[in-house]
Amino acid sequence: MSKITLSQGAGGEKMQELIRNFVLKELEHDYGEVPLSALDDAAIVDGIAFTTDTYTVKPLFFPGGNIGSLAVAGTVNDVSVMGAYPVALSCGMIIEEGFPESDLRTILASANLTARKADVKIVTGDTKVVEKGAADGLFVNTSGIGKRSPHLDGNIDRIRTSRRYPWNWPNDSGLSDGDVLIVSGPIGNHGVALLSAREGYGFETTIRTDAAPLNGLIESALKIGGITAMKDPTRGGLANLLNEWSEKSNIGLTVKEEDLPIDSGVLSACEMLGIDPLEIGNEGKVVFAVVPEASKDVLDAVKASPEGRHAMIIGEASSDIDGVVLETYTGGKRIVESPIGDPVPRIC
Amino acid sequence: MSKITLSQGAGGEKMQELIRNFVLKELEHDYGEVPLSALDDAAIVDGIAFTTDTYTVKPLFFPGGNIGSLAVAGTVNDVSVMGAYPVALSCGMIIEEGFPESDLRTILASANLTARKADVKIVTGDTKVVEKGAADGLFVNTSGIGKRSPHLDGNIDRIRTSRRYPWNWPNDSGLSDGDVLIVSGPIGNHGVALLSAREGYGFETTIRTDAAPLNGLIESALKIGGITAMKDPTRGGLANLLNEWSEKSNIGLTVKEEDLPIDSGVLSACEMLGIDPLEIGNEGKVVFAVVPEASKDVLDAVKASPEGRHAMIIGEASSDIDGVVLETYTGGKRIVESPIGDPVPRIC
After folding, report:
1. What is the pLDDT of residue A205?
2. Which of A94, A341, B240, B310 is 20 to 30 Å from A183 by CA-CA measure?
3. Which pLDDT belongs to residue A345?
């Protein structure tokens, strides 16, 4: 009898397989403006962006955040990268019997504070308590709904060809030749911060999670226009994001290693742990694909946001190549693949 | 250090306390047409009904259903009792490492079949796998969005006073003197079916879960009009539902024991187990409060639905009494209180 394995939940190729072989096989999946089958960050149905995320992050508290702030930020970002502004969030909790009340209070307060930063409210919730040993402390599900950004039509006007936006919303299949790739800041911080707090790792670092709601930053980029796709590099990291875009848009992507923003603390932790910073999940970053003529203005707008100060142009889309290619410091070229599993399980 | 206890997740008074002392204390809760503070079945924000439910039901498979069909039915019903029709559902899963793939497939297929019955689609999802021992097999979160029923304004036209519907949507504070209470069918079946399949109970019964989507039934009742409140008696059962209505609407409720539809198999199981059928959760029932002049027509409409064949008028709202009063077979009167904890934990 075949059984589910940990690597199937890890955001890499194995998870894609699980989703294709089970979720898409058993569920009707072609409904909506951006349907389930798009496997994008959110679905669009009747003009409403709708997304869900379950958080099983371990440990629950880590440098710079906790499961509450993480959940709210992650769901706000999944709505926002579809070109929608968040309207409301839900919060469903599974609590293990014996969980400290004070921790629950802290986590809810963090969720509320993060929601306030994003100018969105948690409007509905559900609480389940299960017996000792039936869950690992606390699991949180946040779902989110959003409505079409008022800047989306202007954004689309700046996109050159009608081939783009198959669904009239920015999505993973929106890229075409020449699009410029912009990342909103350094990558890998969330994963490294998390590992530093995890039992059995426990190395010293000053790295903190980057988890933050990015709806304001994204809105300011949309105001400029010309954005063909947006996505947050969560499970599977930048490597997974770029491969999803490349596959779904059927276009090659090149990224320059020297342009990738990575903090030195993240680099040294990754070296020590033997993991690739491109494969680590982030929770407060977004990658934009932008038509070349708008890329400078979008970069400036992103850099003007507090969360985007260290944004960089990291590469471009090219129909001359297949897949994702990293141009290394030394001038070599390396194929970047989606991780099979994930170097850091239970990152979110 | 205070710790969360099982009874706080059980849908009774202890859970209400947990929600008031933690969720409502830490989260901003006054946003929307029906806000979080209403603690109703769904919130209404910007014209969208939005609800979330986490399912930790044990066991995952039980007579007549499984966690997949249960989750879809429960969330469809929570949207529908607000006077909205379901537009889309999400599905977030936490899977324990080692979970059988074939069970996952069966559960997804059941979820899809139930969604098809309700004419709604699961449009977005999330999958997390946690290590062996970190979760109890499978937990499912379904969130749902809905839009205002086209029949809601006609329904409101049939309600006599402007005092009703403080939020212009049917909700728990909508009842007033003389409203007639209708239950759509026999109560207690889901809880008894579940217990019969649970390790350590294992009694013989032919009772099956009543879990079913009720949006069609509710729509046909709304077409008649005059409905002042609707609610599904899930955790805490009918006892909890009636007490919530009584408190939030500030009105007494009387229910006649002889009019309560309860299957004989449910009655005998409850007697054997020493639990009160009024306190057991249901997943395919709805209770309506209706102005008297519309009650006969609403009852007929409900009885014409396949899920409502055994609907009954069970009582009425009365400003002459406080709380919830059951008139027993013998002509006595008994106060019905919300259960403190819950006779059947992990029922949904």
Report:
1. 87
2. A341
3. 83
CA distance A24 to A44: 17
Count of CA atoms in the C-beta half-sphere (13 A) of B96: 18
A46 touches B: beta carbon within 8 Å: yes
pLDDT at A165: 64
Pairing of strands B252-256, B324-327: parallel
The pLDDT score that the predictor gives to residue A161 is: 59
Side by side, which strands form the sheet with A138-148? A43-45, A48-55, A138-148, A84-96, A122-130
Neighbours of B278 (CB within 10 A): 25
Q: Given a cut of 90, is residue B192 above it in pLDDT?
A: yes
How high is the pLDDT of residue A157?
Answer: 86
Residue A199, pLDDT score: 82
Domains of chain B with bracketed CATH: 6-335 (3.90.650.10)
Smallest CA-to-CA distance from A153 within A46, A214, A227, A238 is with A227
Q: How many CB atoms lie within 10 A of CB B271?
A: 10
Task: State the Cα–Cα distance between residues A91 and A109, nearest whole angstrom.
Answer: 13
Residue-wise pLDDT for A54-97, tens only, equals 999 999 999 999 999 999 999 999 999 999 999 999 999 999 99
**Among A97-111, B83-97, B329-343, which is the least confidently predicted range?**
B329-343
A-contacting residues of B 65-124, CB under 8 Å?
87-88, 90-102, 104-105, 108-109, 111-112, 115-116, 121-124
Higher pLDDT, B1 or B227: B227
A158 touches chain B (CB under 8 A): no
Pairing of strands A43-45, B121-130: unpaired
Residues in CB range of B253: below 8 A, 6 or more apart: B175, B181, B242, B245, B246, B315, B316, B317, B318, B321, B323, B324, B325
Mutate to test the interface with B, among A126, A169, A235, A346 (most CBs of B within 10 A): A126
Nearest to B280 by CA among B265, B292, B293: B265
Residues of chain A with pLDDT under 50: 162
Q: What is the mean pLDDT of residues B240-265?
A: 97
Burial state string for B312-345 with b = 16 or more CB within 10 A and e = fewer than 16: bbbbbbeeeeeebbbbeeeeeeeebbbbebbbbb
- Å from B325 to nearest chain A CA? 28
At B94, give phi and psi (nearest 5°). -110, 115
**pLDDT beyond 90 at B13:** no
pLDDT at residue B226 is higher than 80: yes
Strands A324-327 and B333-335: unpaired
User: What is the bridge-based pairing of β-strands B43-45 and A138-148?
Assistant: unpaired
The C-alpha angle A62, A67, A69, rounded to 5 degrees, equals: 95
- How many other CB atoms are there within 10 angstroms of residue B275's CB atom? 20
What gap in Å lies between CA B94 and CA B128, rounded to an integer?
Answer: 5
Kindly state the tokens that stand for B123. 């449009």
- The answer to whether residue B162 scores a pLDDT higher than 80 is no
What is the reported pLDDT for A343? 74
Q: For chain A, say whether B187 makes contact (Cβ under 8 Å).
A: no
Q: How far apart are CA A59 and CA A193, in angstroms?
A: 11
Q: Give the minimum alpha-carbon distance from B250 to chain A in angstroms, rounded to a whole number.
A: 23
User: Which run of H or of E encompasses B182?
Assistant: strand B180-183
Determine the residue of chain B that is closest to A15 in CA distance: B127
